[in-house]
């Protein structure tokens, strides 16, 4: 159940229209390609640019949640809203794509725990604590450190997320924020779209000590497919302004991160993060949501069994949903 930025992409390119998403969409996601990729669940990610004032970030977030609801209503034969692990299983049993909501960036709550509670009632199941820039209460991986982790209010945000059954997502945050949040959280955390720092030293990736801590926390790292997170040569080329020949990134590069995450974090603590419709470039043969299929084939050639792949494709995240479903349902009241 990887995250997917379709809602924001639809805002930017389709004016939030849900029409024409069955096949042939100009985006990286449509129903036909989801089926080809064997995708049975998605966290539909909603987010607002970091530079917006708080009132606008809340509006952006609510508009995209509305898009997710309208998407599900427009294609009820394909999508079903899901909040709990059992909701996901029922969707799978009926051949539908389980549709959950995640917010990418703590700016989505506008600095308000009350807004967080409202979003939880609407079905928010994870929130990334930052995006590309710091928020007032947490440091981003790609900004100058201010808090050196979480502020006191940031710790309160984590505790309230635990109470509401909103998963703490540590993609995008600094390594100090990762460690701080894991020490505070009483529930499993996730990394919704990050890769392994030891394989590619990008600041968005997860250091080995943090990966190793997931076995104690119960969390899951969901490996991203973004080329600059996956391959060191591409990372250097991208940061250098894209001058010269673009390095070739393949499914094998992504599989190397999956293998490393398994070695350090353990089989029970890894998943797929992808980041489709959140990035313009992807590895060869992985340009859209069909790209899950060649990755599964590559891992199978490396000796991954069918039960192992099932955990990777959603089983591990489903476990985390199960452990937090009661709190999420309680947030409705």
TrEMBL record:
InterPro entries: Metal_Hydrolase (IPR032466), Pept_M19 (IPR008257). One of its GO terms (molecular function) is metallodipeptidase activity. GO terms for biological process: proteolysis. It comes from the Bacteria. This is Putative dipeptidase.
């Amino acid at each position: 159940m990887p995250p997917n930025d379709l809602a924001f992409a639809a805002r930017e390119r389709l004016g939030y229209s849900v029409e024409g998403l069955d096949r042939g969409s100009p985006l990286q996601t449509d129903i036909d390609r989801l089926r080809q990729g064997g995708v049975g669940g998605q966290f539909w990610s909603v987010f607002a640019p970091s530079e917006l004032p708080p009132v606008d970030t809340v509006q952006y977030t609510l508009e995209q949640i509305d898009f997710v609801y309208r998407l599900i209503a427009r294609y009820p034969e394909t999508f079903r809203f899901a909040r709990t692990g059992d909701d996901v299983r029922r969707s799978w049993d009926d051949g539908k794509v389980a549709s959950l909501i995640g917010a990418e960036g703590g700016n989505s709550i506008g600095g308000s725990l009350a807004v967080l509670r409202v979003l939880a009632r609407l079905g928010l199941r994870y929130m990334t604590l930052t995006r590309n820039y710091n928020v007032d209460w947490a440091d981003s991986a790609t900004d100058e450190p201010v808090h050196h982790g979480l502020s006191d209010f940031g710790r309160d945000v984590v505790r309230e997320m635990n109470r509401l059954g909103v998963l703490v997502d540590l993609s995008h945050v600094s390594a100090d924020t990762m460690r701080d949040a894991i020490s505070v959280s009483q529930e499993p955390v996730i990394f919704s779209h990050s890769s392994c720092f030891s394989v590619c030293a990008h600041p968005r990736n997860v250091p080995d000590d943090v990966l190793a801590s997931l076995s104690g926390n119960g969390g899951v790292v969901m490996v991203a497919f973004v080329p600059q997170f996956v391959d060191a040569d591409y990372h250097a080329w991208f940061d250098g302004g894209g001058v010269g020949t673009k390095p070739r990134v393949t499914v094998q590069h992504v599989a190397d991160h999956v293998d490393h995450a398994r070695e350090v974090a353990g089989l029970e603590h890894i998943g797929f993060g992808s980041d489709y419709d959140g990035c313009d470039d992807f590895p060869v043969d992985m340009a859209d949501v069909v790209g899950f299929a060649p990755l599964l084939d590559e891992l199978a050639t490396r000796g991954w069994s069918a039960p192992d792949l099932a955990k990777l494709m959603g089983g591990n995240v489903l476990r985390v949903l199960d452990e937090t479903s009661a709190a999420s349902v309680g947030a409705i009241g």
